[in-house]
Amino acid sequence: MAGVPLVLEEKVALITGGSRGIGAETVRLFAEAGARVAFSYRQARERAEALAAECGGGERCIAIEQELATPADGRALVEAAVRAFGRLDALVVNHGIWPPHDAPIATMAEEQWRQTMAVNLDSVFGLVQAAVAQMERQSTDAAQAAGHIVLISSTAGQRGEAFHADYAVTKGALISLTKSLSSELAPKGIRVNCVAPGWVFTEMSQGTLAHPELGPKVAAGIPVGRPGQPREIAGPVLFLCTPLAGFISGEVLNVNGGAVLVG
Fold first, then answer.
1. Tell me: the pLDDT tens digits for 64-73?
2. According to the 3-state scheme, what is the secondary structure of 93-161?
3. Where would a tag sit more exposed on the chain, N or C end, judged by fewer CB atoms within 10 A?
4. Distance CA 217, CA 220 (A)
């Protein structure tokens, strides 16, 4: 008995922040599904190039070095991906920063606030703006989806996060952006959805999750009893970019082991 395929043959995907963690697993999964993939990185050149080679290299998967802190940065990345592969069918906005040290709002540096807004929001505006323009240009069949956009938010965007107000604000804004873009773009065949992870085993979180006191506390707050694995986030992202998700628009898909319901 044949399984149900999650395939993206002949499709082109752009994944931001793709050199490690959730982004890297998303790159791998999209490549396995048959998509040609462009992904961005900021510093980890060797790791990014190794991932691109692992996923086919050349005409199948490329790594693009790109700072993402302004709308112009976002537009430049989309333009580079389209130059490489000729079109764009899916945009996964996965990049972002989470300042690791607690910062009470009374003493949070304005520089930190501005940097978090710049990376987590300003660049997203440029990415989405350029991606939508490209998807609209290449769309020829109103009966088929012209493109998919998946924004990666967080449980912090829904319930807040003490001492990390800057991060939580940006992730909440992505949820609002998802709903706004869905209302605007669904009639044009562009599906916009959001995936909201909770705690996931990545380099960014390993310090907390490996801590002898904090790690067990985190796990205790997750109904399934453990943090997620990057591939468990990448899978739902892939699904939202396939024809099986063609009737889903404006959804915030919680992929956090039920944590958002008990926080």
1. 999 999 999 9
2. ECCCCCCCCCCCCCCCCHHHHHHHHHHHHHHHHHHHHHHHHHHHHHCCCCCCCCEEEEEECCCHHHHCC
3. N
4. 5
As given in the structure block, the two tokens for residue 79 are 């333009």
**Those residues with Cβ within 8 angstroms of residue 143's Cβ, 6 or more apart along the chain or in another chain:** none
Residue 259's closest CA among 199, 178, 183, 211?
Answer: 199
Q: Tell me the C-alpha distance between 129 and 173, whole Å.
A: 16
Which of 241, 167, 237 has its CA nearest to residue 197? 237
**Assigned superfamily of 12-200+229-255:** NAD(P)-binding Rossmann-like Domain (3.40.50.720)
The percent helix, strand, coil of the chain (3-state, each to 5) is: 45, 15, 40
Which residue's entry shows tokens 């490489």? 84
| φ and ψ of 50, to 5 deg | -65, -40
- For 134, residues 6+ apart whose C-beta sits below 8 A from its C-beta are 78, 82, 87, 88
pTM over cut 0.90: yes
CA atoms of 13 and 226, how far apart (whole Å): 30
Active site residue 41: no
Tens digits of residue pLDDT in 109-158 = 999 999 999 999 999 999 999 999 999 999 776 556 689 999 999 988 89
For residue 37, what are its two tokens? Answer: 């993939």
